[in-house]
């Protein structure tokens, strides 16, 4: 083996070792930054139905004035939280479909759009352009998204009538998801 081959193998082995150490450190930091907590103010949400727990409560300002408090729906009807941003092409595609589902099922399910850290005028134009009718809440500082462990847009949290999280849907929501939520 010549000197260059030995150096090359040493560099590759070092890179792989650093990559593994970095991955382990990142995984540990992510785990400690998002601990599972039984209080209602800092829960991570999973899509596993057996992990049903009370959804973290919040109160957010609504785009059209007033505010919305999640706990107000407890015992009345299920809720779909739709975390979105105006710059998200998937949100732009999915939200008109979500609005159609809201129109069809609004007596049985509440839909709350939660905009992620954008200013009201920008969100207002987006909502007007897409002709959305469901309530739009402004999560200006991202606190509600952090409570729910939301890390990207076009992400839905499903909450049953008792106020418990039953799962999450990354990506587009379907009518079957609404029907399943109604029939719980």
Automatic annotation (TrEMBL):
PROSITE patterns: THIOREDOXIN_2 (PS51352). SUPFAM superfamilies: Thioredoxin-like. It comes from the Bacteria. One of its GO terms (molecular function) is antioxidant activity. InterPro entries: AhpC/TSA, Thioredoxin-like_sf, Thioredoxin_domain, Thioredoxin_ResA/DsbE_sf. Residues 49-184 form the Thioredoxin domain. Pfam families: AhpC-TSA (PF00578). CDD domains: TlpA_like_family (cd02966). This is Thiol-disulfide oxidoreductase. It comes from Candidatus Kaiserbacteria bacterium CG_4_8_14_3_um_filter_38_9.
């Amino acid at each position: 083996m010549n000197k260059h081959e030995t150096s090359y193998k040493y560099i590759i082995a070092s890179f792989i070792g650093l990559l593994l150490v970095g991955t382990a450190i990142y995984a540990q930091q992510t785990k400690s930054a998002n601990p599972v907590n039984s209080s209602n103010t800092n829960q991570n949400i999973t899509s596993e139905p057996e992990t049903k727990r009370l959804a973290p409560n919040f109160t957010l300002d609504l785009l059209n004035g007033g505010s919305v408090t999640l706990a107000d729906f407890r015992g009345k009807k299920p809720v779909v939280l739709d975390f979105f941003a105006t710059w998200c092409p998937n949100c732009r595609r999915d939200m008109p479909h979500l609005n159609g589902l809201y129109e069809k099922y609004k007596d049985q399910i509440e839909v709350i759009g939660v905009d992620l850290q954008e200013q009201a005028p920008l969100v207002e134009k987006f909502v007007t352009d897409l002709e959305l009718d469901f309530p739009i809440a402004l999560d200006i500082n991202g606190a509600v998204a952090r409570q729910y462990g939301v890390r990207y847009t076009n992400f839905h949290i499903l909450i049953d009538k008792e106020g418990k999280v039953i799962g999450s849907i990354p990506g587009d929501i379907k009518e079957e998801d609404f029907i399943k939520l109604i029939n719980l």
